[in-house]
Design a protein that fits this description.
About 15% of the residues are buried. The chain is mainly α and about 70 residues long. Helix 1 crosses helix 2 and helix 2 runs antiparallel to helix 3. The protein has one domain. The longest helix has 19 residues. The protein is globular. It has three helices and no strands.
């Protein structure tokens, strides 16, 4: 998980706090695989267990953030 991932998850968490249900859904998909570190702590160690599943959830989170940022 890289720096971009943490920034993406942090921004989604901000949207989640504002209430859009799709932000929570996207973050729940990520939380199945990793604990999202507290921003600005950008380092974490993890064993993904299912790297393909994580990548799919990360892509979905990015797409969700793109939609939310447009509004």
């Amino acid at each position: 998980m890289g720096l971009f991932d943490n920034e993406l998850f942090h921004r989604l968490a901000q949207f989640e706090a504002e209430g859009p249900p799709e932000a929570k859904t996207a973050l729940d998909g990520i939380r199945r695989f990793v604990a999202i570190p507290t921003y600005p702590n950008r380092s974490t160690s993890m064993d993904l267990g299912d790297p393909a599943g994580f990548l799919k959830a990360r892509d979905a989170a990015g797409e969700t953030l793109d939609r939310l940022e447009k509004y």
